[in-house]
């Protein structure tokens, strides 16, 4: 039979507010406790009610008998707090150490009330700030509640202010985040526009080249050999590509400009080219088809230079046009630039998409951390935390070691954005790869505040950031109200 | 932090290049086999049968206390001097040395607590081939036979023990070096005055030279190390025969079963203190410590052999019944064809003399007191040292220490000591603190003191060679370092890099070392800081077998060879002395050591070294500590959880449960393993571990009383069953369960996934009670006990009374004034006896009768507390809270009579299902006389 509802009281050693959730109620409750204690002092006596909170006093009213709070047993009231454990639930000895499972209520006037384990009553260590747990007089405990209360109130107020400031900063960061996000989105759009522009241009470029080649082949009067349709056509196209001055024959120079060694992209020597063309002197399309073309098709030794591949030939140049070789090369260079620009744009888009696909919190309040790094020196090591990227440790002797790469948010369900997990750092000697867990704490500045390595190669860091501040909640009330 | 891995790498690479993964077991190649140890090989090459020794009866001299007699080796005419002593307490001492050695041979000092008192020997009869001596009144005779020489100790018609009965006495006399090329003085041997009266050897010198060269007498190389052996061969060996004996025990430290195995066909058991990286189980390899004491046991008699020699020692054991099946033995018995079972033991040491103490029992308890009279008893530790110890290599900094301390409190887990391993120092300079991680050691210690807790910091004997280090400078200035063979300070490689090794065999060095623990010398120390001596084998990473070169030189020109197994003993001795001195002789010290020798029990606690998180290692912790207990060292424990590797949760839980019932209870872990503080494995496992530790704290009054007895009498704390049931042959090989004192039987669960264990409850006609359920079981039976993860099968003997404190608090000193609950477990005769011992828990005041010692007896329905110390001058605030009478009938009333004659009724409850009578709150002071009657 359960007669009472568990009242949530803090343990004595629990610190006041922890960042993020400020117990507003706390500040108020000190005053309430004072009032209550003064009232109750009138009818309070003796050891019988020792260690009992106000809310429970009703169960300990002076009678002939006492019913253990779990209802398991009735004992003479004399046996309450007589330093012998009678009740299975320990409820007959709230003021002594007799029951292993009992608890003692520290009134802690001026500070906050709390429960301690019965085993801490009269053990020579002052646990309640009012010293009430050491009532056997062997140990003298000064009453430190007033001081603690003042300190804690000051600390709480400071923390409240800090959280307020933090929240203020956070709102700014969220705002900044919104514009940053927008900026990045715009950036992405711009890039995508540039990309499609480039693609269109390139497409046109290539199309013209294709037409030019086809035209050239026709002009040259080169007929495809029977049964070799596609091959002949391709051979003709490649021939056209290599034939820079479009004179219908390939010189050694021209081959050297367009064909390279398959393995290492090395340019070919004159001897090699002569051998590839089956003899000295310029080669016409037919000879090309019989010699170099076969080598290219076999792909054993040589290949078309990368920047020529896929190029369908210079635009706007008919076979009749005899453009200078320099002009032709100019065209090639433009093409190359255009392609490079295309690649760069693609990469930028990729990066930006990656950045934009990362989770920066419910209001993107952590977006501002993107691209930043924070450092802390601990003993002989400099730690560097780059959120959403990586963590490193640099020793004073200079060696830098990866402590992990960004993986995911690892906070509990209620606070998913309270922890960051970095994994797969440099492997430990004889051990697994290093990992780092970053806890985010509400602060008015963004800074790496603490690094620990409780187990070798498993790092725990504490990052302060306004973005971790959360609205003060009422949930952290400290119990007094429920007792009134 | 992680660069630590770098540093680790440096020295591990230096000495363990072949042993690179944490998961592999010992690299056997790093350690010698008997074949690779030249003297062992030479000794073992000698086969039984042809002892060259003859006793020269005409040289017999008998004084009141000793008999001397010369022995001659008929092969080389070298004479030995035999000394026989009859010692008080039914012991015989046999000493054999060279009659005129070339130079003195080492005799082990400081191990015997006194010169053992003798009793008169008398000659009963003698003839041309022998002398019969009387060893006192019990028809005990010592027979000296002249040719071949042998000694037999008889009781009535029974031979108890024989020496040299197999003719394996071997005594390599010191000799000058013969090969003139490397030692020009060698050729003068013939003129040597010491040997002038002896005829030259019969063999041609060349022949003998050749033989010597072969056998590594003048130098010996193992791996890359050469032992220069300037003194040449010096080994000794002797065999002992034990007729009627099938079970021998002792000679720790080995990771092996309790009952020693025969060594035929394998290596002998080796005693040579070594830092064995990841030791293997079930083999005779040497480990960190050595106690050259062997116990023999048969249903009729228990005896002991103490071979007082500190050099490398090997022990061969053979038995004429080994290998016979039980059926074979029975057949022998039925057919009457059986020879008497016999065990033969052969001791072989590299140098020194033969100095043997034969402890004649006859009961196990007699052997323990006999041995204790020689080497002393277990030191009486501060009560707090019997609590739970929280250790790890390493707690990283003060904040870490604070957090672990807070974590234990938060999870309501009691503990008394938190430990700091080598990383707490400034660069492995012992007696110092890392200036950033432990910048305020006193503040940290004060924080622990405020919680009534203590700390242990490591102090190893290797001293960093660094001219900026005070300790090193002083040792060098005082010339206290051990020297290498060339006379320079010996330097070896250890944790700090290059290190010197102070010569702890020097009394002046030990006195100086002790003075370093003074509060004004050891900066940052406080009275709640205690010490741990590790690596004191000594461990030398780049030395032969990871230890010191045998030709290193100690004070008095003794070689390290002579004193090796003593080094760790002396380190702990000097450290313990330091802790005593710093308190002005008031406080009891607490020092843990890894290396040890006979007598180390006087100095503190021992642990079984760097074990591993494996089930086999959990299991072996029982025989390893039992073996140590049998040879006096009761304060023994194994690293809870296992040092190397990460334990599974189940293994960790089971280890806590086992460790809670072993004398030294410390969790420890290697730096590379994940954290394993007790609350890191989920609330259920935290609860189970908490419960195991709470059981330990509840039973501390009993533990403390056991330590008091061990300290006073030398009786072991953790006992094999046969010690209390010497005639019950079923117990002789048992080492998966044990007794604590006489009254608690523990069968910890050491099998993975166990659903039950089978415990053997000894004692026909006795009963045992499950301490958790109070269920009664008959003795002399195998009992199957179903177990869950929270089970620790423990039984209290019917007929015993065990005091407990059931208010479990944060530490032992928090529980100081708490009341006692007496657990009275009735025998079938409805009687029980027990004791209650109380003192201040930490000073030497008990030596001045400042303690309470009471006898508790239950008989005729009356429980009486009687004073055992009439002139006791100690008082306690503790009182008797509750009495549980287990196996009781329901009384109509219970009354209490106090010393003033007042009689008062007591309330009680009776649980008929468990037959447990709980008497409520007698309330009498624990030091008072009182009597409780059940009507």
TrEMBL record, chain A:
GO BP annotations, alphabetical order: liver development; N-glycan processing
Residue runs in coiled coils: 181-208
Any one GO CC term of the record: glucosidase II complex
Superkingdom as given in the UniProt entry: Eukaryota
Keyword terms: Coiled coil, Disulfide bond, Endoplasmic reticulum, Signal
UniProt cross-references to InterPro entries, sorted A to Z: EF_Hand_1_Ca_BS, EF_hand_dom, Gtb1-like, LDL_receptor-like_sf, LDrepeatLR_classA_rpt, Man6P_isomerase_rcpt-bd_dom_sf, MRH_dom, PRKCSH
Annotated region (Disordered), positions in chain: 308-331
GO MF, one example: calcium ion binding
Residue ranges annotated for the MRH domain, each copy included: 371-471
Protein name (database record): Glucosidase 2 subunit beta
Ranges where the EF-hand domain occurs: 230-265
């Amino acid at each position: 039979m359960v007669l009472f509802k568990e009242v949530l009281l803090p343990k004595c050693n629990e610190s006041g507010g922890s960042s993020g959730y400020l117990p507003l109620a706390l500040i108020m409750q000190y005053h309430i406790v004072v009032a209550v204690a003064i009232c109750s002092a009138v009818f309070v006596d003796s050891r019988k009610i020792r260690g009992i909170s106000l809310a429970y006093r009703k169960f300990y009213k002076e009678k002939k008998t006492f019913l253990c709070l779990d209802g398991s047993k009735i004992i003479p009231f004399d046996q309450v707090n007589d330093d012998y454990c009678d009740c299975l639930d320990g409820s007959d000895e709230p003021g002594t150490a007799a029951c292993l499972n009992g608890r003692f209520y520290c009134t802690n006037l001026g500070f906050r009330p709390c429960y301690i384990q019965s085993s801490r009553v009269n053990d020579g260590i002052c646990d309640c700030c009012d010293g009430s747990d050491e009532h056997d007089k062997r140990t003298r405990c000064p009453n430190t509640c007033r001081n603690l209360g003042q300190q804690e109130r000051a600390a709480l107020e400071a923390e409240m202010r800090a959280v307020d400031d933090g929240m203020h900063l956070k709102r700014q960061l969220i705002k900044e985040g919104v514009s940053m996000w927008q900026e990045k989105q715009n950036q992405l759009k711009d890039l995508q526009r540039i990309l499609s522009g480039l693609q269109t241009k390139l497409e046109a470029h290539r199309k013209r080249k294709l037409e030019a080649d086809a035209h050239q082949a026709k002009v040259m009067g080169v007929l495809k050999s029977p049964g070799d349709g596609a091959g002949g056509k391709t051979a003709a196209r490649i021939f056209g590509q290599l034939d820079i001055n479009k004179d219908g024959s390939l010189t050694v120079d021209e081959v050297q400009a367009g064909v390279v060694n398959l393995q290492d992209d090395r340019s070919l020597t004159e001897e090699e080219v002569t051998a590839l063309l089956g003899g000295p002197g310029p080669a016409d399309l037919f000879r090309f088809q019989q010699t170099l073309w076969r080598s290219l098709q076999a792909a054993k030794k040589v290949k078309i230079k990368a920047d020529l591949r896929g190029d369908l030939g210079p635009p706007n140049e008919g076979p009749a046009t005899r453009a200078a070789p320099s002009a032709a090369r100019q065209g090639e260079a433009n093409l190359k630039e255009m392609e490079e620009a295309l690649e760069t744009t693609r990469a930028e888009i990729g990066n930006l998409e990656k950045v934009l696909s990362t989770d920066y919190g419910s209001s993107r309040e952590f977006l501002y951390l993107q691209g930043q790094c924070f450092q802390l020196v601990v003993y002989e090591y400099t730690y560097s935390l780059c959120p959403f990227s990586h963590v490193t440790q640099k020793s004073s002797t200079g060696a830098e070691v990866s402590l992990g790469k960004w993986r995911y948010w690892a906070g509990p369900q209620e606070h998913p954005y309270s922890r960051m997990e970095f994994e797969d750092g440099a492997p430990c000697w004889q051990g697994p790869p290093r990992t780092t867990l970053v806890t985010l704490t509400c602060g008015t500045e963004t800074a790496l505040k603490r690094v620990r390595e409780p187990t070798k190669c498993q790092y725990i860091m504490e990052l302060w950031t306004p973005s971790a501040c959360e609205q003060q909640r009422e949930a952290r009330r400290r119990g007094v109200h429920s007792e009134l | 932090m992680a660069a630590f891995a770098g540093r680790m790498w440096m020295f591990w690479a230096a000495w363990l290049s072949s042993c690179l993964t944490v998961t592999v077991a010992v690299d056997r190649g790093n350690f010698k086999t008997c074949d690779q140890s030249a003297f062992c090989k030479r000794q073992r090459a000698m086969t039984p049968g042809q002892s060259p020794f003859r006793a020269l009866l005409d040289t017999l001299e008998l004084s009141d206390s000793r008999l001397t007699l010369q022995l001659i080796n008929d092969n080389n005419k070298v004479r030995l001097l035999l000394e026989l002593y009859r010692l008080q307490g039914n012991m015989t001492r046999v000493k054999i040395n060279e009659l005129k050695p070339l130079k003195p041979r080492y005799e082990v000092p400081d191990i015997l607590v006194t010169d053992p008192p003798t009793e008169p020997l008398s000659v009963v009869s003698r003839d041309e081939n022998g002398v019969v001596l009387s060893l006192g009144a019990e028809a005990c005779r010592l027979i000296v036979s002249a040719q071949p020489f042998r000694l037999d100790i008889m009781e009535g018609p029974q031979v108890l023990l024989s020496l040299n009965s197999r003719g394996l006495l071997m005594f390599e006399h010191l000799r000058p070096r013969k090969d003139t090329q490397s030692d020009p003085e060698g050729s003068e041997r013939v003129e040597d005055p010491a040997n002038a009266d002896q005829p030259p050897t019969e063999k041609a010198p060349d022949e003998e030279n050749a033989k010597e060269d072969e056998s590594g007498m003048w130098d010996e190389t193992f791996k890359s190390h050469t032992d220069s052996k300037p003194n040449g061969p010096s080994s000794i060996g002797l065999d002992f025969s034990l007729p009627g004996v099938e079970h021998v025990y002792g000679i720790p430290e080995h990771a092996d079963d309790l009952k020693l195995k025969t060594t035929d066909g394998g290596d002998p058991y080796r005693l040579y203190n070594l830092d064995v990286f990841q030791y293997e189980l079930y083999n005779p390899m040497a480990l960190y410590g050595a106690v050259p004491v062997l116990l023999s046991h048969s249903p009729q008699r228990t005896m002991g052999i103490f071979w007082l020699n500190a050099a490398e020692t090997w022990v061969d054991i053979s038995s004429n019944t080994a290998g016979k099946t039980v059926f074979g033995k029975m057949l022998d018995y039925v057919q009457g064809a059986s020879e008497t079972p016999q065990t033969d033991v052969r001791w072989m040491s590299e140098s020194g003399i033969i100095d043997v103490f034969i402890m004649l029992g006859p009961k196990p308890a007699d052997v323990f007191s006999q041995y204790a009279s020689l080497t002393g008893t277990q030191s009486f530790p501060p009560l707090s040292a019997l609590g739970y110890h929280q250790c790890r290599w390493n707690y990283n900094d003060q904040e870490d220490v604070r957090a672990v301390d807070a974590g234990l409190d938060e999870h309501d887990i009691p503990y008394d000591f938190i430990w700091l391993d080598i990383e707490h120092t400034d660069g492995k300079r012992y007696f110092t603190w890392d200036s950033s991680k432990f910048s305020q050691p006193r503040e940290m210690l004060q924080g622990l003191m405020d919680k009534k807790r203590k700390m242990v910091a490591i102090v190893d004997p290797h001293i960093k060679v660094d001219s900026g280090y005070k300790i090193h400078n002083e040792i060098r200035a005082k010339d206290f370092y051990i020297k290498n063979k060339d006379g320079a300070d010996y330097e070896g490689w250890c944790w700090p890099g290059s290190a010197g090794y102070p010569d702890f065999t020097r009394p002046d060095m030990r006195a100086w070392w002790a003075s370093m623990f003074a509060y004004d010398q050891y900066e940052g120390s406080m009275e709640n800081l205690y010490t741990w001596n590790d690596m004191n084998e000594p461990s030398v990473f780049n030395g032969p077998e990871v230890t010191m070169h045998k030709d290193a030189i100690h004070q008095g020109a003794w070689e390290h060879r002579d004193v090796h197994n003593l080094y760790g003993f002396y380190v702990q001795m000097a450290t313990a002395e330091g802790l005593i001195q710093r308190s002005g002789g008031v406080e009891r010290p607490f020092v843990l050591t890894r290396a040890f020798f006979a007598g180390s029990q006087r100095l503190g606690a021992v642990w079984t070294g760097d074990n591993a998180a494996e089930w086999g290692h959990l299991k072996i912790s029982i025989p390893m500590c039992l073996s140590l207990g049998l040879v006096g060292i009761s304060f023994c424990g194994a690293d809870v959880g296992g040092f190397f590797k990460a334990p599974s949760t189940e293994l960790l839980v089971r280890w806590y449960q086992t460790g809670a019932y072993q004398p030294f209870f410390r969790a420890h872990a290697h730096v590379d393993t994940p954290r394993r503080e007790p609350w890191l494995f989920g609330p259920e496992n935290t609860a189970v571990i908490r419960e195991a530790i709470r059981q330990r704290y509840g039973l501390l009054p009993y533990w403390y009383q056991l330590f008091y007895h061990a300290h006073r009498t030398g009786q072991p704390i953790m006992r094999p069953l046969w010690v209390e049931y010497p005639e019950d042959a079923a117990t002789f090989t048992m080492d998966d369960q044990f007794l604590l004192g006489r009254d608690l039987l523990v069968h910890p669960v050491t099998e993975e996934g166990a659903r039950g264990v089978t415990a053997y409850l000894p004692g026909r006609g006795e009963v045992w009670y499950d301490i958790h359920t109070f269920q009664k079981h008959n003795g002399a039976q195998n009992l199957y006990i179903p177990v869950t993860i929270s089970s620790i099968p423990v039984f209290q003997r019917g007929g015993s009374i065990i005091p407990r404190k059931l208010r479990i608090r944060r530490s032992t000193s928090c529980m100081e004034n708490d009341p006692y609950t007496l657990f009275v477990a009735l025998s079938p005769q409805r009687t029980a006896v027990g004791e209650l011992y109380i003192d201040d828990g930490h000073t030497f005041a008990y030596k001045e009768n400042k303690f309470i010692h009471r006898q508790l007896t239950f008989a005729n329905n009356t429980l009486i507390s009687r004073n055992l110390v009439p002139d006791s001058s100690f008082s306690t605030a503790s009182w008797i809270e509750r009495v549980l009478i287990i196996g009781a009938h329901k009384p109509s009333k219970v009354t209490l009579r106090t010393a003033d004659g007042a009689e008062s009724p007591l309330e009680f409850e009776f649980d008929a299902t468990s037959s447990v009578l709980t008497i409520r709150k007698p309330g009498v002071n624990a030091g008072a006389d009182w009597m409780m009657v059940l009507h």
